[in-house]
Amino acid sequence: APIAYVNLPQAFVFNVTGDSRDRLVQIKAQLMVRGAENEELARYHSPLIESSMLSTFASATVDQLRSPTGRVELRDRA
C-alpha cells in the first residue's frame, strides 16, 4: 500500500517541567499511514489522536527533550 502523510492541523503546545524556569514547547506533527483507508481513518479520528499525543508530549521533561535519545524515545511513545 502506498504511504501517505496526514498533517495534524494544529501544533501541540505544552509546558515542560524539570528545570528552574518555565518552558513552553511547540511541536508540529504528521502521521505516516499506509493506504487510502488508513489515511481516511486517521483524518476521521484526528481529535482522539491529537489528545493522546498531547498527553504523551506533556509528560516529557526538559532533560528528555534536550537529548537525542530522549527525543527518539518520546517520538516512539507518541
TrEMBL record:
Keywords (A to Z) from UniProt: Cell inner membrane, Cell membrane, Cell projection, Chemotaxis, Cilium, Flagellar rotation, Flagellum, Membrane, Transmembrane, Transmembrane helix
Any single Gene Ontology cellular-component annotation: bacterial-type flagellum basal body
Record membrane topology: Single-pass membrane protein
Compartments (UniProt record): Cell inner membrane; Cell membrane
Listed Pfam families: FliL
Superkingdom of the organism of origin: Bacteria
Biological process annotations from GO: bacterial-type flagellum-dependent swarming motility; chemotaxis
InterPro entries found in the cross-reference section: FliL (IPR005503)
Function summary: Controls the rotational direction of flagella during chemotaxis.
Stated family: Belongs to the FliL family.
Protein name per Swiss-Prot or TrEMBL: Flagellar protein FliL
Native source organism of the sequence: Vibrio parahaemolyticus
Gene: fliL
